[in-house]
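Subject: sequence -> structure tokens, single chain

Hey, anyone have a minute? Need the predicted structure for the following. Not urgent.
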Amino acid sequence: MPAKKKAAVKPAKKPAAKTVSKAVVAKKTPPKPAPRKSPRSSASDMFRGFTPYPLKKGEPYMNDAQRAHFKSILFGWKRELMEEVDRTVHHMQDEAANFPDPNDRATQESEFSLELRTRDRERKLIKKIDEALANLEAGEYGFCDSCGVEIGIRRLEARPTATQCIDCKQLDEIREKQMGG
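Reply:
Had a minute. Here:
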């Protein structure tokens, strides 16, 4: 028997490296979803769009101009909170869906729950705003409930629903801290 000749084995060809342009890669990569914007960071940020009251030397505390200033701040803040309530109702009606996936349903319920909790806090804030407006009409706005001293224009601009001067508020916070811990 004659000897079989072995076929010369050729080394396997490596496939040519494909060069992919960056433009093609960029097209294949799905765009990242835009980060969800929070409508705002907190309810107290809503009334920040006012111009601070220009204090004049020797001006009496809580005069007509100052009362008008705080009345516009309080009414504007209340109006914005009420608009937010309306937006929430419409958003929840528009977004309510019966998702077949339990995870999607749970996510939606969690979002709605958080939104409702925020609205509940704002409802309580609206009540405080109404109380501040009533005090403003009664001539009691701007004075500490505890000691009767002036709360101060700048403190009221920072927190229009404040009912205590800074000293009484700090004492209350110290007492709460001692009682709580």
